[in-house]
Design a protein that fits this description.
By secondary structure, the chain is mainly alpha-helical. It has helices at residues 2-8, 22-37, 42-50, 52-55, 65-77, 82-101.
Length: 112
Amino acid sequence: MNKVLNWLFFRESKGQSSGPTLNQFFDEQVVPYLNAKSPDNTIISIFNNNIRYEIGTVQLADLANQDLDRWIAGQRKKGLKPGTINKHIFAINRVISLAKRWSFLPPPQRAS
């Protein structure tokens, strides 16, 4: 799973930022987009039940691989099955992908 997270996020360290938190971005940008696009509330439900209170208060621009790795470890400690964790990873992937597409996150910095 770490390869998936590295693909999503080419960052290793946190910086200081004044942008929105993951929760703010989700509530203000993603929820209206998902509601307009489809009546399916799966990603909204997964976010509210499994992401919001664990890593949602982290500023979006400061979210790092370590945060996501700890979040996944917490999912495992709860005893969730791998398939369930993968659904949660899909949801966070969708949110992060939208943040990148809408320029709430800087373009990835690839090593040269």
